Protein 1
Amino acid sequence: MEISLERKFEDKIAEDLKIEPQDWMPDEYRKTLIRQISQHAHSEVVGMLPEANWLTRAPSLKRKIALLAKVQDEGGHGLYLYSAAETLGVSRDKMIEDLHSGKAKYSSIFNYPSLTWADMGAIGWLVDGAAIMNQVALCRTSYGPYARAMVRICKEESFHQRQGYQIMLTLSNGSSEQKEMAQDALNRWWWPALMMFGPKDSDSPHSEQSTRWRIKRLSNDELRQKFVDATVPQALFLGLTVPDKDLKWDEKTNTYQFGDINWDEFWTVVKGDGPCNKDRIQTRIKAYQDGEWVREAAMAYADKQQDRSSKMVG
Ligand code: FAQ
């Protein structure tokens, strides 16, 4: 019985069909998806914080509206992703508890501070740019609810990337102080953006199995390379310098070769000792506690609605 279910699952994967919540799936496949999707959801929600920091200081009403819409979108992405993870049998409360206790991860990138307005440009351009590179590939991931959430998320992320690039373009064509601010933001966000794709393939414990199950469609290194190749010409167009002395175009492979990533820094941040890790989690815990009354009111309203409709049926 079990063998034929497993065979059916493997056949679906081989035929590139989607696995749906009601389908049988190996426990490890379910666990891997819960881990990845919940971490992805947490990244979207914690990822609201560096930009929220600048909402009250946006330089114009137009910029403020665009940034506010972007930050709200990220919260929405978190919600789609928590819902996708819930279809695998994990509760939202459990996922949030794991985030607050430090058991669950979220993207390393959100543990860096946003120091100037130019960081709003760099985050949209580089962080959303890196996120899209990964998420476009995830539109073809094997688990149906995750793949479908990604399609909508990618559409919104591409607007985010453009609003960030547009800020960088304005600053790069502005006064010398503004151009310096843009360069400084690129200097600080470039390497952390490359780290977003995760450890080198040779040091990535989950890659082999996730690739076999078609959860991952491109490897960490493949996605990182695609990001570098797409982004370096954008930096050149801005007249900015990518902070990598080893960066060079390779005629043979038609790709940019780039310098070594500081993996010690990456693991320090992932393990909880980055510049803002503690602050980010404390802020999330406080926001969750402050929102208790909203959740209670929403649940009371939902219960009342249910009461009313069961009375009407009765
Ligand atoms: N940060 O074996 P692998 C966004 C962990 S969304 C922290 O390679 P895997 C939108 C990894 O979890 C950004 N931890 O793992 C936005 C694992 O630890 P574990 C988020 C990392 O899963 C923009 C260990 O290292 N995107 O930015 C990181 O096969 C602007 C070994 O690694 C996603 O989550 C990292 N960077 O591949 C929002 C995309 N990298 O779990 C607001 C979905 C690795 O065993 C503003 N996720 N680790 O304890 C994925 O594609 C994959 O999970 C990877 C990692 C590629 C991130």
Protein 2
Amino acid sequence: MVAPGDVEVEPGRMYRTWLYNDQFPGPEIRVKQGERLRVTVENRLPEDTTIHWHGIPVPNAMDGVPGLTQDPIRPGETFVYDFIADVPGSYLYHSHVGLQIDRGLIGSLVVEETHSHVDYDREYTLVLDDFLPGAPAALTNRGPGPLRGGGIMGRGMMGGMMSGMMGMQVPPYTGLLINGRLPQDPAAFETRRGERVRLRVLNPSGATTCRFAITGHRMIVVSTDGRPVQPLAVDSLDIGMGERYDVIVEANNPGAWTIMAVAVEASLPPAQAVLRYEDAAQTSPAANAVPEGLQRGRVLDLFDLRALEETETAPPNRTIDLTLFGGMMGSAWTINGQAYPDADPIEIHEGERIRVRMVNQSMMIHPMHLHGHFFRVGGVLKDTVIVLPHMGRVSLDFTADNPGKWFFHCHNIYHMESGMARVVRYV
Ligand code: C2O
Ligand code: CU
């Protein structure tokens, strides 16, 4: 059920928003690899809604894009999603209507593998989110309240209004959450010395790329966007909207430690949670402890990762060049100068191998997401990839093996809503 409701984001502070089954984030959905998932969605919101099963290559009619793959679910109506969850891994589900992601309509979806590619003793899911108190409003029509700017990407002279005009507009978030909790009342994840803890780190936030690290521990990356990779130890990693990373933390440093996510493009108080050893004397982390990995050490470079499975490397039959641009003085966000829905579909044929080459001529990060397919980028398979600002380039390859009309867009929902999207259509 999708309905308005209240959640407590810190002790004594209620937040009225929209919820899946009265929870924020929505309840974690878990299925086993190959199982059939059937979800009945009853819309008790005052608006239309849909659910998108982010990352799962579902049949087109189950993909949840209103006006493209289904009619929106009207207030008072019910819709049943029904598909087989074939590919194991960490996924998301979220509303695909307007800016409803910033109303809290997000959740985690785990497809458990029959034979795990990695050994671990326990696992936790960490849902990162940007906290917007109040209803989201489009930014290009001048966002509510003062604009914020800055962050890791644009410190110094690029503050507030200036960065807004220069294409760094971000929504008026007041904080970052892990599993729906502000740092005043952080979620705690228990472990014991000697264990291997699997963390599924997911970022379904509206407009925030995060840098993620843990005090006193390195992280071994074991999968991205659900797909297994050869283990790689890092001190921190950047996770864009729509991306997921699974990491193993080797619990060999007893105590209570800060888990932290900082916004890369905005100045916001970091999200915090706690990694706590059951047998340790210390029960809460040192105040103001900032993970070493946020200051030095190895930041994950996506192009250092290698898939654990065999990936298709055939050369493309078709190459598509896309220029990502926009945001200047509050203008639209565009792909090749066009703002969706006033944009040409990308036409492909079943069986083709497609290469999409993107260049980002704007000043913001664009996490680009393709529905219905995994693509190969560098040495891994993913469904969402960050294209860095200031002429960042990414090239991705995929096989056209899931016919339909599929959305391809920036997962910053404000960019998506102001035009940075295309339809990929099988003809
Ligand atoms: Cu996670 Cu089209 O979205
Ligand atoms: Cu974008």
